[in-house]
Amino acid sequence: xxxxxxxxxxxxxxxxxxxxxxxxxxxxxxxxxxxxxxxxxxxxxxxxxxxxxxxxxxxxxxxxxxxxxxxxxxxxxxxxxxxxxxxxxxxxxxxxxxxxxxxxxxxxxxxxxxx
Amino acid sequence: xxxxxxxxxxxxxxxxxxxxxxxxxxxxxxxxxxxxxxxxxxxxxxxxxxxxxxxxxxxxxxxxxxxxxxxxxxxxxxxxxxxxxxxxxxxxxxxxxxxxxxxxxxxxxxxxxxxxxxxxxxxxxxxxxxxxxxxxxxxxxxxxxxxxxxxxxxxxxxxxxxxxxxxxxxxxxxxxxxxxxxxxxxxxxxxxxxxxxxxxxxxxxxxxxxxxxxxxxxxxxxxxxxxxxxxxxxxxxxxxxxxxxxxxxxxxxxxxxxxxxxxxxxxxxxxxxxxxxxxxxxxxxxxxxxxxxxxxxxxxxxxxxxxxxxxxxxxxxxxxxxxxxxxxxxxxxxxxxxxxxxxxxxxxxxxxxxxxxxxxxxxxxxxxxxxxxxxxxxxxxxxxxxxxxxxxxxxxxxxxxxxxxxxxxxxxx
Lengths: 115, 413
Known about the structure:
Chain A is built from three helices and six strands; from the N terminus they run βααββββαβ.
């Protein structure tokens, strides 16, 4: 099964001190490196800050651009990952090893279509 | 119970046993919660028709499996969207399933932590206990449509998010077993003292929980906490006939007629506690059961072994320091060290329990005993405002009118 991890920025990243952010970031980078190497993380990126986001709203075929992210600042997405594991238990066990000090991670199963 | 309901009761027992068993096996074989449940429902409808007429067949489980398989094939042939499931149903065995009991898997799946508590409860009652959505909705006083949606969503989430169909092992087992025990005890409590409504006690849900806990004990005979929960539930049920007065009002433990308690059930439960204790892995349900047993074994309220109960509560607070457990400990303290010490303990919980009616009822009784009548009245009024259960509200209002009797509500025990 594949799962998308939608990861919020977290207080530590958005408002923490530079020193602490750097310390945590080091652990985060190390964790992602290990996960990619294990073959279980098959995709993912860190995203530019939410204030760089453009949201396209589609209404009856008409497109309007909004100069802001989809989510409120509190839950602004800071990055995402794609896990490929046996089941939700394994996915959750991996997410529980993530090293960032705070934030939220939505674990969402991906629909895999036969090609 | 009417005489002509007797065969129906037998039927119900067989149904409950077999429906859960078959659902559990089909979920494993088909990998599809929804389809499994629908096939079982259809087979049950047919069984109801035949069995009430011809009696329960000797090999009820194989009768049901065959029927479920035939129904499934009929149905899948008619509905194109299920075509890929056709092969799976066709491959179902025609003989009773010999792989042992799948129900443990089913229970752990229904109580998986990715589901919210109320969803775990609803799904367990539906799939394992075999209650209809209507019965569950009525028991929890939610609209049937809401409940049906909750169950549909849960079954979909289990399949779509890849919840594995297995019994957890290793370190995971204990945390996951706790989820299961919490769900069962919640069902029991909902049945024992309803939180809202004019019917104070809904007997069926409490019995359902007892059945479920007993099933879990049969499936996991070496888990002391499971045994502890069964003992705890059975001890509560042993006092069942004495819980209400002739007008349907709830009675406090101290005013119950102990001659109505089921002595044999109490003795059986005590043996269960001993069996659990011998496994040498203590836990909160075993301790709570031991406390309930001490209450049950006291010949009169005045002979209650409070020092022992207080010691058990102290043990319990070391494992589970939740405010409600600490409140119960404070109540026990009142009988060992007196009302002042108990009130001191209770007051320290004010912040976390200000919305809990028994907190105010307890404080009211303690204050009254200490002669602080005005404060006691205030606490009592606050408690009445908070309870949604009419029987409990009536009990409290009555004590307020009588000026109270100076004894705190014993709480769950």
